[in-house]
Specification:
The complex is a heterodimer of chains A (141) and B (169). By secondary structure, chain A is of the alpha+beta class. Chain A is globular and about 40 Å long. The chains are: A alpha+beta (141), B alpha+beta (169). At the A-B interface, helix 1 and strand 3 of A face helix 1 and strand 3 of B.
Chain lengths: 141, 169
């Protein structure tokens, strides 16, 4: 049983630049994930408009019947969101850690072009480790 | 200055303050997207006129629901993104939280959507929404003068909802 179902990274204009599935049921092809990512981008923007108080930065946590979606937006507008089991703890920490990995292994990669899909081996390796560590920590709790 | 006396006895009930009331707004929509009821208790920021605001809110809920239905990681057969679904069909959501507010959402089998916007640090309000739905059934649906699909103008319902929401933690 996976604690984390999938991870998405979208750039500041809503394009999907990274998607990884960790064992969710059902088929999700590339088009579906692209559409979901850009839909999330717009919903995030609309939620800011509907805020009753000023200074809203968009949805941080969406609680659905069968999953939780945690979203972290960096200062430059890149959004990281993770789909996990309802009530999974410490997801903010994991997202911050993934952001750190992104800055270290993607942004500092001289061959990476900004806002383009992420294809960096080191990022993949370290991300897999981070998610695995999180899963082990969860089993230990 | 006693000439203008009588000011000790407050002429009107005290102005409701935000303290002790965590609720910001309440929306009730029917399945066609008509806003049946809109109440606000504490809303300093208004960027849109009320009609636009209601449309945007309904659109947000509609799209978030199709997003969750498609994203549902436990269901094998999900269909395409954006296929129309009946109330209760597909994976829905019950709340979301931003840094400034929390929105709790409930949909009845007949497609009545109740939305309560509160302070971000309020707890689970699903039971409260069910209670508000019960109030709706008691005071609006059972009101013989109410014709379905029109905005709710029912004083008893208004006051009861107001009282209940003000009493929420």
């Amino acid at each position: 049983m996976a604690a984390i179902y999938s991870l998405y990274i979208i750039n500041k204009s809503g394009g999907l630049i990274f998607y990884k599935d960790y064992g969710s049921a059902g088929r999700m092809d590339t088009n579906d994930s692209l559409r979901l990512a850009s839909l999330w981008h717009s919903m995030h923007a609309i939620s800011q408009q509907l805020s009753p108080v000023s200074g809203c930065t968009g949805i941080e946590l969406l609680q659905a019947d069968t999953f939780d979606l945690h979203c972290f937006q960096s200062l430059t507008g890149t959004k990281f969101f993770v789909v996990c089991e309802p009530g999974t703890p410490h997801m903010e920490g994991l997202l911050k850690h993934i952001y750190e990995l992104y800055t270290d292994y993607v942004l500092k990669n001289p061959f990476y072009e900004m806002e383009m899909p992420i294809r960096c081996e080191l990022f993949d390796v370290n991300l897999a480790q981070a998610v695995q560590k999180d899963r082990v920590a969860l089993l230990g709790r | 200055m006693q000439f203008f006396g009588g000011s000790e006895i407050s002429p009107s009930p005290p102005v409701p303050t935000a303290s002790g009331n965590n609720a910001y707004m309440l929306y009730v929509f029917n399945r066609n997207g008509v806003c049946l009821l809109y109440r606000e208790w504490n809303r300093p920021l208004k960027t849109l006129n009320s009609h636009q605001d209601h449309k945007l809110m309904f659109g947000l809920l509609f799209s978030l629901k199709s997003l969750t239905a498609k994203m549902d990681p436990t269901c094998v057969d999900k269909g395409n993104l954006g296929v129309p679904q009946l109330p209760g069909q597909g994976c829905s959501f019950h709340s979301f939280r931003t840094n400034t507010y929390k929105l709790t959402f409930m949909e009845s089998p007949s497609g009545i959507k109740i939305i309560l916007v509160t302070h971000p640090r309020t707890g689970d309000l699903r039971e409260s929404l069910k209670y508000i739905y019960n109030l709706y059934v008691e005071y609006v649906v059972k009101n013989p003068l109410y014709s379905p699909g029109t905005p709710i103008r029912c004083q008893l319902f208004d006051t009861t909802v107001d009282q209940y929401v003000r009493g929420l933690g």
